[in-house]
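quick one, 182 residues, struct below
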Amino acid sequence: VRTNFNETAFFYPNLYSDTDGNLELSFTIPEAITRWRMMGFAHTKDMMQGEISRELVTRKKVSVSAYAPRFLRESDTVSIIAKITNLTNDSIAGKAMLQWIDAVTLQPISEKLLKTDSLLNFSIAPNNNTVAQWQVIVPVGLQAVTYKVFDITGNHSDGEQKTIPVLTNRQLVTESLPFMVY
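---
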């Protein structure tokens, strides 16, 4: 299950060069399925320098990405949609599953939130995508919830997990304070 969705990655990689002067580097990148702009700068002890800028793509052959709100409100009725992408040259079939956990007590609460079946069947043509959709009603009394969405096929699986705050109906989303700029 992918959990690191940071929007930036800063790293100090170790560089290894061969006899031809080619460099190899390795580093850990966040787990978001997206495109990244990688910029690097290196120097030696005698201040020789080099820089690089490239576009990197992080992807999986079969992946799932949920479109969940940034926050929920008590008594909300929402649709959680997950896009399942097939980058293989074969048609695939599988199951998509959504689980809910109370982020404070770490207890499963799927039966309290889900108004549809948590397990859905899907099939995807080669190099195509499909969606899975679940209806959710947020009960009163939760502070935060964690969702886990998975796709499972014969040879591939993927998942993502995120925590979402649950706001009361009295809590404002934006609060403003005046300040002066001189």
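The first strand starts at residue 15 and ends at 17.
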